[in-house]
Design a protein that fits this description.
Structural class: mainly alpha
Helix content: over 70%
Order of helices and strands: HHH
Largest sheet: none
Shape: elongated
Radius of gyration: 16 Å
Length: 61
Amino acid sequence: MSYNRSRKKTYKAGRKRKKSLIYLLSKGLGQLQSLLNENPQIQLHLQERLYLKTIKKVLEQ
């Protein structure tokens, strides 16, 4: 919330926010992958698999 209230967006605050968002994304992907590994009956559609592949590729960059 304090990031939105500040007038000047500093590089340090932006980098901190970006790092936390990347952490949350990787955490969510890990949970999704563990859920898919535990339950093999869950099948993703082709479009969902492509989305997941793209997100993983972006996360690695």
